[in-house]
Amino acid sequence: VGATTLAQWPKVRRVWLFVDGTLLAILGDTVIDELGLDGLDVHVLEVPPGETSKSIAGLARIWDWMLGEGVDRSDVAIAVGGGVVGDLVGFAAATVLRGIGFVQVPTTLLAMVDSSVGGKTAINHPSGKNLIGAFYQPARVIVDTEFLATLPDREFHSGWAEVIKHGVIEGSTPGGEMGVLLDILRRNAPALLARESPLLPWVVRRNISLKASVVDADEKEASLRGILNFGHTIGHGVEASGYPLFHGEAIAVGTVAAMRLAAMECRIGPEEVETIEHLIADFGLPMRARVDPAEVRRHMEHDKKKAGGKQLWILPNREGLVTIERDVDPAHVDAAIASVVAG
Ligand code: NAD
Ligand code: GLY
């Protein structure tokens, strides 16, 4: 952060710094000191950890604080934390005074490889996750993989689901080479999981450039950006079904279902399914969830209505590409869901 980050706003005097409460508890003021904001007027607000902060009340608290303290249009909001802080503060930055500067400093793996990049900001509504939000690009995303040292294992593993997703879609991203990321993941799972591998920053960087290339080509998700939802069609259904899974864990289950569905549709063979299943297991992610398949279908139906009545399937094929499909045999969908729900 510091001078380089804020150089594009020469008039910046004041920074609104939002820090995840767990990080503040672990790192104390060092997390603020190390951002190099000397000389600026820095206002700090702790964001309580957890999805409940991504709420209308959580957003109103931020608006009230900033407006009460006299925010002005030349100010910059900096979000330091995981996807919760990034999504919430991004939406606050997009809306207060019709938009102020915004910088993301992601501190979870999921936020580094996925949520901090691409400008999707949102809060949740009682009728569903991420239903109120805006596309609002951060001017900078500052990534330091050293933050990952304190991340609990289950959170760390959860982030790998989005990395595996990027591995599956890599061949269909602009300029993306096929299979490079998957190959690195296959060969280096234990070292990457131990968080010591010098490859970890490389993997994070590759994920960011891969996602950025897709967003660059289709920011508002008219078509191509839809491929970033690989594994999310059934994954969201599983996530919404009440079983306490982290987002990445539900996406891992959805990824297994999507691969099996693609095999049932004769698009890929069993060996491609096995490769991804092994990766999911190697990265400590679940392949099944204890959920009611009828609930999963109900939530998928709900998502479909919100998306204009279209159920979109992002499915891999034998050429190593993914395509966005509408016509998928419903019996195969049921079988794919049944195959990932534990009895
Ligand atoms: P999170 O923000 O809830 O963080 C997970 C946990 O880790 C929290 O308890 C947090 O306090 C803690 N934490 C954060 N950094 C830490 C660190 N360095 N050391 C120790 N603990 C740390 O969860 P997440 O997985 O980062 O993000 C999930 C959210 O992201 C969801 O709300 C999801 O909807 C959203 N999301 C958004 C996008 C997007 O494109 N905007 C994409 C994927 C997910
Ligand atoms: N996480 C999916 C997207 O940003 O489009």
Shape designation: globular
User: Average pLDDT value?
Assistant: 94
Q: What's the helix-strand series?
A: HEHHEHEHEHEEEHHHHHHHEEH
Counted beta strands: 9
The major β-sheet equals: 5 strands, parallel
State the helix count.
14
**Radius of gyration, taken over Cα atoms and rounded to an integer in Å:** 20 Å
Classify the beta-strand content into a percent band: 5-15%
- Low-pLDDT stretches: none
DSSP helix fraction: 40-55%
Which strand order do you get reading across the main beta sheet?
2-1-3-4-7
Question: What's the N-to-C terminus distance?
Answer: 49 Å
Structural class: alpha/beta
Q: Which ions, cofactors or small ligands are bound in this entry?
A: nicotinamide-adenine-dinucleotide, glycine
Detailed description of the structure:
There is one protein chain. The protein has 343 residues and is an alpha/beta fold. Helices cover 48% and strands 15% of the residues. It is built from 14 helices and 9 strands. It has helices at residues 2-6, 21-27, 30-33, 56-68, 83-95, 109-115, 153-169, 180-193, 199-217, 232-239, 247-264, 270-282, 293-306, 330-340, and strands spanning 14-20, 41-47, 76-81, 101-106, 120-125, 128-135, 140-141, 313-316, 322-325. The chain has a 5-stranded parallel β-sheet with strand order 2-1-3-4-7. Strand 8 (313-316) and strand 9 form a beta hairpin. Helix 4 (56-68) crosses helix 5 (83-95), helix 7 packs antiparallel against helix 8 and helix 11 (247-264) runs antiparallel to helix 12. The longest helix is centred in the middle third of the chain and has 19 residues, at 199-217. It is globular and about 60 Å long. 45% of the residues are buried. Bound molecules: nicotinamide-adenine-dinucleotide and glycine (GLY). Glycine (GLY) binds next to loops.
